[in-house]
Structures are given as structure tokens and as C-alpha cells.
Amino acid sequence: MGNALGSAFGGALRLAWRLPAVVVALLVLLLSVTLTARWPGIQRRCLRWGARRLCQAFSVTLPKPLALPPEPCLLVSNHISWLDVVVFAAVLPPEAGTCFLAKQEVGGWPVIGPFARRLGMAFIDRTSKFRSYRALPALGDVLGERPLFFFPEGTTTAGHDFAPLRPMGLALSSRTGASVQPFYLAYLDARGSRTTAPAFVGDDTLLESVLRLARAPAVQVHLETLQALPAGDRKAQARALGAAFRSAAARVREREAASLGGAAEAQLGASAEVASRHRWA
């Protein structure tokens, strides 16, 4: 009882402390990206700076900035939360001009939609495979000029496992000859154990997810750059990508078990995965 009360009180204090900082960071991010829309280079730097400030407001510790291959490639990652996009915006090199791919509905969302369009995000109609396929030529043109980032699961998960990968987006690799650069993302607590605080799953609303993260203890971002996949058949790439994600997840579980002790194995193995209806890309 005492621990529960202490945890609730700590969460309330963190919420009261962080929420004003989150609101200010978000407003500054939106304003700076909007005002610099005519100067893409400056806008990308504002986006990175603003994304880092937003993570800082949530007490989310970021990894070191990422380095990308010199030629444009497909960038992919497992998908846990709306926070994933903020994290990658904060660590990808702004000079690469990475284009994020989202489902078409995101473009119509209040606040987020206009913001995404000002950033030059690409949108895809995923209501049918035919409509998704029709978008490939235009996306191929984007990929010919700069990296294109998307989440091949097409939905968020709690982070312990993965949703089935959708190979349609990977068809861009064979069409353009671009390689696929995968990343594995996990959110950890101060002990190095997975935390579901940032997860955006099930019946969560965006507001509920934001408030839960604001109440939670500090979060560390684990981000691993996996081996790049050469251009090839999309289904074969999806299988290779799934295997790479599972291996990366196993490495995180091993570190969790080592940090928590042997008793953690059963707990980690019993973690259930919940697929979400929140589909961003």
C-alpha cells in the first residue's frame, strides 16, 4: 500500500514538473519548424534541436547521433510509440534530409497533420494493397534524392516482440536498388529493464500516452544499428529483417536478465505482446 502511494505521489510530482516543460518544448518545436519552412536546411536543424528538447522535457535520455551511408537508403525500425518518430528526428543527421513515411490519415490529424506536411513527410494510403502499390513510384522518386524512413510493422507494439512485417514498403529497395538500413529500438528504465511507459498500444489515446510518459520515471533509449541489407526481393528482405529484429531483442533480454539477476528470465519470457490499432506508417 505504501509503495503504491509513494509511486502515485512520485508520478504526480513528475507530471507537475514535466508537463509545463513538455508544452513549452512542443510549442517551440512547432513554431520553429513552421517559421523555417522556406529554408529546408535550417528547418531540419530546428527539427532536430526541437526533438531533442522535447525528449529532454520528458526525461528521455537519447543515444549518440546516428551516422548514415552516403547514398540514399531505406531506413526501417521496429515500432513502439509516437515517441519513436521524435527519437529518430533527434538522432538522425539533419544534413541527410530524411523523409518520414506515414499513413495518409496522419495528414488529416489536428496539429500533427499540418506539422507533418510542413516537414515534407510522405503519406501512403494503406486502405488496400493496390493503393499502397500505386504510391511506390512517387516514393521511389523521394528515395532517389534522400533517405526514406518507415516502420515495416505498420503498427505499434508494447516492445517485447514484433507485429508481422509488411513487405510492400521494402519493394522500394528492389525498384530503386537502394539498400535497407535497419535499427532496433527499445525503451529502458534506470536498471536497464524494458519499460512500457512510452508504448502507444491497445485503446490508448495520444493524450493518455503522453501523460503516462510524463508521470513515469526517467527513460533511456536503446538504439542499435543493425547490418544493412542489400537491394533484393521484398519478401526475402522481410524475413531477414524479422530475424535481425529478433536477434537484437534477444540481446536486450540477455542484458536485462544479467542486470536483474537469474530470477528475471521467467519474468522476461512471460512478457506478453499487445498489438495496437495505432498505425502510423
Topology:
Elements: H1 2-35, H2 40-57, E1 60-61, E2 74-77, H3 83-91, E3 99-103, H4 112-118, E4 122-124, H5 129-134, H6 136-143, E5 148-150, H7 171-176, E6 180-188, H8 206-215, E7 219-225, H9 234-260, H10 264-269
Parallel strand pairs: 1-7, 2-5, 2-6, 3-4, 3-5
Antiparallel strand pairs: 6-7
Description:
With 281 residues, the protein is α/β, with parallel strands linked by helices. The protein has a 7-stranded mixed β-sheet with strand order 1-7-6-2-5-3-4, sandwiched between helices. α1 runs antiparallel to α2 and α2 packs across α3. The longest helix has 34 residues. The chain starts with a helix and ends in a 12-residue tail after the last helix. The relative contact order is 0.15.
List keywords for this structure.
globular; 7-stranded mixed sheet; alpha/beta; 281 residues; 7 strands
**Shape summary:** globular
Number of strands: 7
Low-confidence stretches: 266-276
Portion of residues within helices: 40-55%
- What structural class should be given to the helix and strand makeup? alpha/beta
Q: How would you spell out the order of helices and strands? A: HHEEHEHEHHEHEHEHH
Arithmetic mean pLDDT: 86
Radius of gyration: 19 Å
Q: Beta-strand percentage?
A: 5-15%
Summed up, the helix count is 10
Distance from first to last alpha carbon: 41 Å
Strand order of the largest sheet: 1-7-6-2-5-3-4
Q: How would a crystallographer describe the biggest sheet?
A: 7 strands, mixed
